[in-house]
Amino acid sequence: MTDVEIKKGLAGVTVDYTAVSKVNPETNSLLYRGYPVQELAATQPFEAVAYLLWNGELPTDEQLASLRAEERKHRALADNVKAAIDLLPLEAHPMDEVRTAVSVIGASDSSGSGSVLDAAGSPEENLARSIRLYASLPAIVAYGQRRRRGQEIVPPRDDLDYAANFLWMTFGEEAEPVVVDAFNRSMTLYAEHSFNASTFTARVITSTLSDLYSAVVGAIGALKGPLHGGANEAVLHIFNEIGSAENVVPWLDKALAEKRKIMGFGHRVYKRGDSRVPTMKTALDTLIEHYDRPDVAALYDALESEFVSRKGIYPNLDYPSGPAYNLIGFDTLTFTPLFIASRVTGWTAHIMEQTASNALIRPLSAYNGPDERHIDGYVPDA
Ligand code: ACO
Fold first, then answer.
1. From CA 218, how far away is CA 52, in angstroms rounded?
2. Which residues carry out catalysis (predicted)?
3. Do domains 21-225+334-357 and 231-326 have the same CATH topology?
4. What is the pLDDT of residues 259-296, one digit of tens each?
């Protein structure tokens, strides 16, 4: 054993600069390229937020129209992606389905020379690849849910913008504006969050000069875990277990006695509340009113107040987004894929930033295994 200081989980370690977003736990704020995320969620379509993350500035009307036109070109589910999804068992987790679909898109992308020496791609190639993935993911997520429900695929509609078309392809009917607005806000809130586990995974892969698709596939793997993106799905499981507000106290007594983690609460960086929660909670409240589900509000409030008063640990974004996606009609298994559809914008912004100023990410470890030992009878070559 050595006496080096180990930073388990890299907690508190600053590994690089980023201009993509700034998380400030002291002021409970999150800025994308300088703009508070609450302001972006309230005023911008998700397409403009994607543009901002990639380009550093909000788009002009013309730039937004151009991105929207490009997004429409890649909206339909490609035949080979659909064929690959159809090969998977219906029981496959949708995160695995989306991960596979992204791999197929990457393997089918003929831009670049095809040599590993050029895998990292030029800035132009990587921006085009980022737009392609962001535009393709809604159809993949929507088709996944429909396939599991035994429903036919719904082709995209060119007259609808990103969020409305996403809901159209999932449900086959036009969503009410209040639902589109809540969904659009959730997409903005999930889009970016500095060096979280999945983004850091994407940056590690990119640092080897691998390609953007490989980095996104790796990031999806990191996002799947319940300590990260998988928590929005886990929140709904908890809500279903509890059932209704009056069961919160006995349920929590038992869960805490069993030392269970309560999904949707706690954060590595924010210790006094997640900056994104108030905006998402407002969106959830509009959905609760729209769908007339006061029971959801009662359960949400009861669990939050009981857990916060007992543990002093606050909700994270997954706590309001889980019930919001459930009210909209998404299956619980689809929640974390929705996170991918949004976060792919942040991941790819980081991939491009890492590529522009790369250093191989390769930390050290302190060895604590057996002392040097030898194979009996081994005689080294002369
Ligand atoms: N439920 C119960 N106890 C908790 C929770 C929770 N949700 N979160 C933290 N704690 C407790 C831990 O048990 C630990 O207690 P101890 O010191 O008595 O052992 C203490 O608080 C510190 O927790 P850590 O897990 O060590 O803190 P860390 O900063 O590593 O954890 C994390 C952050 C992983 C998010 C944690 O809070 C957690 O597991 N939360 C539940 C999963 C979740 O909601 N993840 C979503 C993250 S946000 C996102 O991806 C959008």
1. 24
2. 267, 318
3. no
4. 999 999 999 888 888 999 999 999 999 999 999 999 99
| Residues carrying an active site annotation | 267, 318
Q: Is the CB of 267 under 6 A from ligand 1?
A: yes
Q: What is the ipTM of this complex?
A: 0.95
Nearest ligand 1 atom, CA 265: 7
Top CATH class, 21-225+334-357: mainly alpha
Please give the number of the atom of ligand 1 that sits closest to the Cα of 264: 44
Q: List the structure tokens of 162.
A: 């990103």
Please choose, from the candidates 217, 212, 213, 322, the residue with its C-alpha nearest in 3D space to the C-alpha of residue 262. Answer: 322
Q: Are 264 and 318 in contact (CB under 8 A)?
A: yes
Quick check: 138 and 165 in contact, CB under 8 A?
A: yes
Residue recorded with tokens 């995974």? 201
* Ligand 1 contact, 315 CB (< 6 A): no
Cα Rg of the chain, angstroms: 22
Residue with tokens 């085009």: 128
Report how far residue 308's alpha carbon sits from residue 304's, in angstroms, rounded to the nearest whole number.
6
C-alpha span between 4 and 134 (Å, rounded): 42
Task: Spell out the domain ranges in the chain.
Answer: 21-225+334-357, 231-326
